[in-house]
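Good morning N.,

You mentioned wanting to compare the apo and holo forms, so I went ahead and generated the holo version with pyridoxal-5'-phosphate. This is what I fed in:
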Amino acid sequence: MATLTRQPLAPLALDSPAAPREGLGTLATSLVGSEILRIAAEVRQLAAEGKPVLNLTVGDFSPREFRIPAELEAGIARALAAGQTNYPPSDGVAELRSAVRDFYAEALGLDYPLEAVLVAGGARPVIWAAYQAILDPGDTVVYPVPSWNNNHYCHLTGARGVAVETRPEEGFLPTAADLAPHLAGATLLALNSPLNPAGSGFRRDQLAAITHAVVEENRRRGPGAKPLYLLYDQIYWLIAAERAPHATPVDLVPEAAPYTVFVDGISKAFAATGLRVGWAVAPPYLVTRMRDLLGHVGAWAPKPEQLATAEILGAPGCARALAATVRDAIDQRLAALDRGLGALAADGLPVRHLPPAGALYLSLHLDLIGRFGSNRAIRQHLLHEAGFAMVPFHSFGTRDDNGWFRLSVGAVGVDEIPPALERVRAALG
Ligand SMILES: Cc1ncc(COP(=O)(O)O)c(C=O)c1O
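and this is what came out, ligand included:
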């Protein structure tokens, strides 16, 4: 056997500032990294140093606190044992596509044909494909802030993002009056409910008014003109607060169906962020294009995960029951934060929060801008003085001096919350 000589390649500056970065494309070099991931790295560093940290940063689940449902795990194992390890069809296995179609009909009252369902490796590829399929460089995307990652998806498509500020009184969701001035000439309106970062969901009347505005704008444009599309990311809907039933634009205003792209998946509903199963439900002419785009990237969901998800969605009542277990565990944590933060406020500390509204999140306001000057500085103070790690709303596109923060509970134990809030009391006292 020939002897292999290992070549020392590191001296060729493979990963140093001397590497030929200048030769990269402008899309890559002008990408802005995720601030949330940067903050998460800072938190990991503190934890590695042995400091107590309540990590309320990432919109993820710790498998220690939130294990995926046993049914999902068993279904994946069965599919693997049955040798389901080859390429799935590029729009998803037929079992899962029909299960999504039937589940949407039964649970959301949306009667779509099979050709309207596209499965991919999580919600992210679906959002990317929708942006790519709909937008040309320079097209306008309207999105409310705070919201998750629309700025990055605009950058990836060369679209012009119009960020519309929202208010705490509205749970940080936009109203039709907020959006209406920006819709003329826009190509995409990107909405998310329940909302990352606030957890709040649209009221039916609020969403109906927005959807009517989209339909009206398309009526004005007439056939032949490029329409205004509505991206409706409902990835958290199965874990929305029980008292706030989820609403969809197409159920409220069926005329919006030709322009609406639903984004959904199992990442949050089944605490299964690492399994990578998401889907779009959209008009078939658009789904075909999105499928072709994703086919070139190969961003398919793994076949065993698709088949296991199909079994769960297909079993009557199963998806809702499993999501309810996830929601109950989330609610316990949100309730502990709600109680503890309420007690700090009652004691006169400059703390205010919105009532938990579902999903994984709670919105916290710290009236400390006068003392610290920016959200960044407040965050640093609480991280280092209290081991209390949160993400400022400006990571979701708002200004850096509004004093609002997202607390995300998927990676913390219920018992960790009271001692952490005592540390916050000391740090703010
Ligand atoms: C609103 C929203 N949409 C989509 C995603 C991404 O979901 P996935 O992990 O399935 O790609 C997230 C993740 O945090 C999210 O908050």
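The radius of gyration is 23 Å.

Happy to go through it together on a call whenever suits you.

Best,
F.
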